[in-house]
Amino acid sequence: MLVSWRYRERKSLIQAFDPSAWIIFYACFIVSTLFFWDLRVLSFFLAIALVVIFTSGIKWREMYRAWLFICGFVVFFSLLTFLTGRGGMEVYEQEHTITTLRAPFTLFKWQPTLDITVERALFALSMLVRVFSLASMTILIPYSINPAHYGITFHRLGLPDKIAYAMDLTMRFIPTFGRDFQLTMDAQRARGYEIEKLSGGIISQVRKLAPLIVPVTIHAIAGSEDIIDAMDLRGFGIGRRTWLVQLQYRRRDYVLMGLAALILVGSVIASLFGFGKFWVPESLLHMVGG
Amino acid sequence: MNDTKPLSVVIALAAVLVVFLLVAWIGPIINSNLQLDETALLRFVFVAIGLLAVFVVYWLTRENTAWVIGTREVVYMAIGAALYAVFSYLFNGTVFVVPSVSQVALRPAIAIPMFFGYIFGPVVGFFSGAVGNMFGDALTGFGLSPQWSVGNGLIGMISGMAALYVDKKKSMNAVLSISAALAAIATLMWIMNPTLANMMFFDVDAGIFGDAAISLFAGLSAVVGFVLVVLIRYVFRENIDLAAAVTWAILGNFIGIGFAAISDIWINGFSPTVAIVGEFLPAAGPNMIFAAILVPILIGAYNAVQRQIGR
User: Fold this and answer.
1) Where are chain A's structural domains?
2) Shortest distance, CA B255 to any CA of chain A (angstroms)
3) Chain A residues in contact with B31 (beta carbon < 8 A)
4) Among A98, A227, A247, B250, which one has the highest count of C-beta atoms within 10 angstroms of its own C-beta?
């Protein structure tokens, strides 16, 4: 019934470490990245992400769809940031114009104009680097951590048994429900349903989403009875849980966790001292006469 | 929450707040330009505040069986979180370009934590909302907004708090009154500031994000949603489950989204008016419309399945 992530054993940097140690490193990486907008600092995080990607041992054909989605998403949002300047106003106050592009036509007396500024261009680039680093580190996890280790990993991170097991099940259910959604959508499409062409007012449109959401949800709940029975029959929750797999931290895992803590603490301190804010090279400003 | 260690949870959360207060107090002595809203620290402080609030509610009502986590709850927590993550990912505007009506984009996924919270209890609701939002953001690559995950968790938890009250009808009336007051305050603030930008709306075709002023429909969405909920409350007054689910869901929605939006006053440096009008209203208002329509449909379908399974 469960569809699994495309995990398999590989010779990779991630799999050289204990999954709990890797999750700690990943969490510290994500949190630390959020502290910065400085392209130089973000390049450091990008470098880490690239090292992890190129040592992941995952072949292009295995996850090219995921990469295409991430790249499309990151480029789309960065381009949007560049065109509209959205989000940038929170990190810079002044803009230095490189050039202004004007459309050779007018729409109802309005001439579309695009101001290309140093700040917008660098902010879009910083966003691209930041989001790509976060997204790529995230997407590698399901390919690199054995689903059988999810529960024990969360347990070793200090979560109570039941919550750890719920996290484990959540990660296992996500691809299953993704597939169920696709099947349901195909089935409804065969009956003439088109999500792209929902019409009517807001209430009518929301009602028309029910043929997708309700079957997937109710099928999931109805199907869960077997899982509940299987867990109850094995005495789930009646005592302290033991796990089939025993994981042990090795020296390299402690080194990785130490490095993660160092990056996190360093990021917090640097951020408190005002380092890592949005950065524009002086030379670029001189070039545009700023 | 049988196997949690309550004291250690409180100590951990309190420690986060103490460390932050120390940073806020000592920090300016070392760095006179220290502005905490420009660091990511505040996000995690609000996570601690949100979790502390959840813990206080649990502690005050800990004798109630609604907090017990058995096998069913563990499985439903996982199903709720996974469904919320998958639907959030699919309907966030990047996978399907879902249509929007007058700045109100279709985000139907919010019905999941509300439904799971009401049917399976506050713990399932909180987990579905918080963990589902976290995984949904991770799948999309939106980064990390942990205070919004806690806000989503609160939506599910409060939807499930109906189970804490024996007299559902009486509790519903109180909940409706509070929700009416919250909807009225937010809408009144919009009427006084109608030109503020809609911070939550992303128009794919025009490439607008947080730039357009709130439309009339988005501004009135909390009132529209509230009227829908009141209608359901009275039209389905014989079906107490349906009416209670929708009623509690809107309170959860107001408090959960309100928590996340208000935290942005400190985190993003928004003014209280921008946080309420630009963020809270366009997020919470449409959510109420989805809740009023999709939650009853889900409950109806679930009741039918329950009769079939016989559990």
Assistant:
1) 14-287
2) 23
3) 272-274
4) B250
State how far residue A266 is from chain B, nearest Cα, in angstroms.
13
Asked if the C-beta of A164 comes within 8 angstroms of chain B's C-beta atoms, the answer is no
Provide the pLDDT for residue B78. Answer: 96
β-pair partners for A99: A116
Q: CA A33, CA A264: separation in Å to the nearest integer?
A: 9
The pLDDT of residue A1: 47
Spatial neighbors of A47 by CB under 8 A, at least 6 apart, are none
* 3 state SS for chain B: CCCCCHHHHHHHHHHHHHHHHHHHHHHHHHCCCCCHHHCCHHHHHHHHHHHHHHHHHHHHCCCCHHHCCCHHHHHHHHHHHHHHHHHHHHCCCCCCCCCEECCEECCHHHHHHHHHHHHHCHHHHHHHHHHHHHHHHHHHCCCCCHHHHHHHHHHHHHHHHHHHCCCHHHHHHHHHHHHHHHHHHHHHHHHHCCCCECCCCEECCCCEECCCECCHHHHHHHHHHHHHHHHHHHHCCCCHHHHHHHHHHHHHHHHHHHHHHHHHHHHCCCCHHHHHHHHHHHHHHHHHHHHHHHHHHHHHHHHHHHHHHCC
Q: Which residues pair with A113 in a beta bridge?
A: A102
CB A169 to CB B112 under 8 A?
no
What residues contact B35, with CB distance under 8 A and at least 6 apart?
A: none
Q: Which of B141, B228, B269 sits opposite A70 (nearest CB)?
A: B141
pLDDT at residue number A253:
95
Report pLDDT for B288. 86
What is the pLDDT, as a whole number, of residue A229?
93
Distance of alpha carbon B116 from alpha carbon B110, whole angstroms? 11
- Residues B146 and B47: beta-carbon distance below 8 Å: yes
| Ranges of chain A with pLDDT below 70 | 1-5, 84-91, 93, 103, 107-113, 198, 289-290
Of B59 and A86, the one with more pLDDT? B59
> A139 or B102: whose pLDDT is higher?
A139
Q: Tell whether A94 is within 8 A of chain B (Cβ).
A: no
Give B20's contacts in chain A (Cβ within 8 Å): none
What integer best gives the mean pLDDT of chain B?
A: 82
Do A174 and B78 count as a contact with CB atoms less than 8 A apart? no
Asked if A90 and B31 come within 8 Å (Cβ–Cβ), the reply is no
Q: What is the pLDDT of residue B296?
A: 92
Closest CA to B93 of B82, B85, B111, B105: B105
Identify all chain B residues contacting A170, using CB atoms and an 8 Å cutoff.
77-78, 81-82, 85, 131-132, 135
Q: What is the mean pLDDT of residues B287-296?
A: 88
Two tokens, residue B104: 């109100």
Q: Which residues of B touch A195 (CB under 8 A)?
A: 96, 98
Look up residue B119 and give its amino acid: I
Contacts of B278 in chain A (CB under 8 A): none
**pLDDT value for B2:** 47
The verdict on a CB contact (< 8 Å) between B101 and A174 is: no
Query: Which is nearest to B267 in space by CA: A34, A20, A3?
Result: A34
Q: Name the minimum distance, in Å, from the CA of A248 to any CA of chain B.
A: 24
Residue at B258: amino acid letter: G
